[in-house]
Structures are given as structure tokens and as C-alpha cells.
Amino acid sequence: MSESGTRADAGTADDPVRGEARGDAPVPLSVLDLVTVGSGSTASRSLATSVELSRLAERRGYHRHWVAEHHSMPGVASSSPAVILAHLAAHTRRIRLGSGGVMLPNHAPLVIAEQFGTLEALAPGRIDLGLGRAPGTDGATAAALRRGDTLNEGADDFPEQLSELTRFLDDDFPDAHPYSRIHAVPGPVQGPQGRPPVWLLGSSGFSARLAGLLGLPFAFAHHFSARNTIPALDLYRESFRPSAVLDAPYALIGVGALAAEDEKEAYRQVLTGALSMLRLRTGRPGLVPAPEEAEAYGFAPAEREFVDGWLANVVYGTPDAVRSGLDDLQKRTGADELMLTANVHGGAARLRSYELIADAYGLPAEDAQAD
């Protein structure tokens, strides 16, 4: 990685949580990436697309690019966020990079502290550590990850795991604690340095309340739990206590969004993601189907109901229609940031969508950065 890729440019580290709205956007716009793998493609191609997406997002003024942890899903290649983020850091120099999120119960807190301490050393002032309490997969896979049979054990222990992780990041266990002589490296024991801000992620009220009580930023998964969005955000704001991290609540929401030159093409693309989700929810996970396969699929009435309900929470259409839909969603929820995800078949469609949305909001078109 070049020297310019190892540090954040001026302005990105001043406030490690709050973003800055660009162009005509009402709030900062960011990217949520599942490294989607479509039929006829490969994980290698999808990872290459993620690099293109991160560079595009940086060039067009998106604030951050997060990668989500999922396991045992053929249509998703983001099982190792820390590895992917290191690769993205080598190809960018300003955009914030982070996990959206790492599923804390799947990992030992010390391991996460080491991984994200390493990322912070590689890209100082640019790393976010988003944490979730769900497994990011099915129960059997979660058991394989955790080497145990009790799925809820990790979720129930989430506050304690979070506290342990935070102490490893800050290197501040009390002297009497059994971990007082254990240090996460890279980390503070090696000298003064920053550390990634911790975000809590959620799709219900548990993490919303916890984030509020701890004074942490909160990210809500509106893209798959839309009916809980406003109640969870209200709970977060009502529970919020000022902290050394934040003096006021800061909440972003993940939003399914896809822009295309015309509405028909946009629908054609988002239908691929809806069919992929239908198959996943009915125990038939696979690669994301091509638009032709999704168009030809014979949906049973119950399947059509699911797909229609899913697409009702995706903002898609022409660039102007997507801008209008995002503006309306931001007003209804009061979200401080919108994190857009486009889980459709083709990498080209995803990249084009982010470009069109940037154009619709008048986001800057800066010169591409060299490797």
C-alpha cells in the first residue's frame, strides 16, 4: 500500500462518528456491501467489484464503506470483514471503512481487538468497528462458528462481551482483572494511537437501548426490518446518555436502494435480490439469480406476497425517484446518515446505481486516486 493509503486525509479523523452531507443530500450517504456473488460469477470477481465500489464511493463523496459478516451463504462473499477491509484500505486513502458488522458472539473479543487494531494501524483514523449480536447465519452454522450448541448463549452475553472488547481496545483492565496483563496488539501498549469507534448494530430494540445507554452511535437494519425502524430509533434516542464518544445521538439506517436509467430496468435488477432472499428464507440459498431467471420464475401466491413485501422497503427506480424516496425516508425516520445497499445480481448494476445516486444528489466527482 502506498504511503498515501496509510493515513486519513485532513477532515476524516476530526469527528470519527459524524459524517458530512455532500452535494444536495440531506445527510451523509454511505455504502453497505455484502460482496454479492451472482450466478455465472465468482467470489474473486465480486471482491474486485468491492474494490471498484470503494474507490467510486471515495471519489463521489460517500462517507463510509462497510462490509457485513455473513456465513454459509453462497450468494455472499463477506464472511471475513477484517480481511476485506484490509484489502479495501490498500486501494483507498480517505473513505472510512468498517464492519457492518462483525457479529461479536461469533468471535473472542481479543481476536476482534487485534484485527481492528491492525486495521487502525494500516489506515489510521479511517476504521469503524460495527458490532452485532446476531449470528449472521443459520443456527447450525452459528454452532460451528462458536464450537457450541447453545445459539442464544452468545447473544445473551453480548453486553459483557462488548465490555471486554472495549477494555482490550483501550488496554485498561483493572489491575486485579485476570486479563490485566494481556494486551491487544497493535494497540495502546505500543504507544499513543487512535482506535476505531465502536458502533452497535441492530434490527430490534435490544441494541438500540444498549447503544443509547452507553452513548454509542447506532446503526439500524431498515433494509430487512423496516417495521421496527422508527420504534428502535425512538428507543435509542430516549435511552441516550451523553458519553466521551457522543454528546448527542447519532443513528444511521441501512437502506436497500437501486437506481437505473429507467424504472423497468431498476425493477428487473431488484427482483434478483428479492428472489435470492426468498430462497434464503425458505432454506434454498444459492448464488443471486440473473435478471432473466428472476423474470421467468413462477412465483406462487405466498412467494409473490413475500417478494412484494420485500420490495416495498427497497427504494428503486430512476435516479430522481430514488432521491425522492431516500429524502422521504430520511424525513420520516430522522436518520443522521443513510447507508445504501444494492444486493442485486450484477456488479455493473451496483456500481452504476451508486454513480447515478451520486449524480442525483450532485455529489462531487473528484479525480480518481492512484493505487
Query: What is the arithmetic mean of pLDDT?
Result: 92
Q: What's the order of the H and E elements? A: EHEHEHEHHHEHEHEHHHEHEH
Helix content: 40-55%
Lateral strand order in the biggest sheet: 1-2-3-4-5-6-7-9
Q: Helical stretch count?
A: 13
Class derived from helix and strand content: alpha/beta
| Rg (C-alpha, Å) | 20 Å
**Percentage of β-strand residues:** 5-15%
Straight-line N-to-C gap: 7 Å
Largest sheet: 8 strands, parallel, barrel
Overall shape: it is globular
Total E-strand runs = 9
Extract low-pLDDT stretches: 1-13
Structure description:
The chain is globular, with a radius of gyration of 20 Å. Helix 3 links the parallel strand 3 and strand 4. It is α/β, with parallel strands linked by helices and 371 residues long. Helices cover 42% and strands 13% of the residues. The N terminus is likely disordered.
Q: What are the key terms here?
A:
single chain; 371 residues; alpha/beta; 8-stranded parallel β-barrel; globular; disordered N terminus
Structure summary:
The chain is of the alpha/beta class. It has 13 helices and 9 strands. The chain is globular, with a radius of gyration of 20 Å.
Write the topology of this structure:
Blueprint: E1 29-33, H1 43-60, E2 64-67, H2 81-90, E3 96-103, H3 109-122, E4 127-132, H4 139-146, H5 151-156, H6 158-170, E5 198-202, H7 205-214, E6 218-220, H8 229-239, E7 251-259, H9 263-281, H10 291-296, H11 301-311, E8 314-317, H12 319-333, E9 337-341, H13 347-360
Parallel strand pairs: 1-2, 1-9, 2-3, 3-4, 4-5, 5-6, 6-7, 7-8, 7-9
